[in-house]
Specification:
The chain is mainly α. It is built from 5 helices and no strands. The chain has one domain: Flavinator of succinate dehydrogenase (DNA polymerase, domain 1). It is about 65% helix and about 0% strand. Helix 2 packs across helix 5.
């Protein structure tokens, strides 16, 4: 049976992982998490959690468009993060 929600503890763990060593990433990723995470599909939520396991230089490179993740799910999620932040004026 597929779990269709995240417990408060799991969500807190993901929120903690949003905190990055690079201020720009911290702002971009935390804002997306706070405003969009609950609306993601379960697959996107899992992908978001695993995306946070990457290093700051990789994430920054993907978010500024310098390179793209080879993982399609991560690449599509980064597109959503970029789109959200552009709409917010960041």
């Amino acid at each position: 049976m597929m779990k269709n929600f995240y417990t408060r503890r799991e969500k807190s763990r993901i929120e903690w992982a949003c905190r990055r060593g690079m201020l720009e990433l911290d702002i971009i990723i935390t804002s997306f998490f706070e405003n969009c995470f609950d609306e993601l599909t379960q697959n996107e939520k899992r992908s978001f959690a695993t995306l946070l396991e990457y290093s700051d230089p990789d994430l920054f490179s993907w978010i500024i468009g310098y390179s793209r993740s080879k993982n399609l799910e991560h690449a599509l999620l980064v597109d959503k993060i970029i789109s959200y932040n552009l709409n917010q004026g960041y």
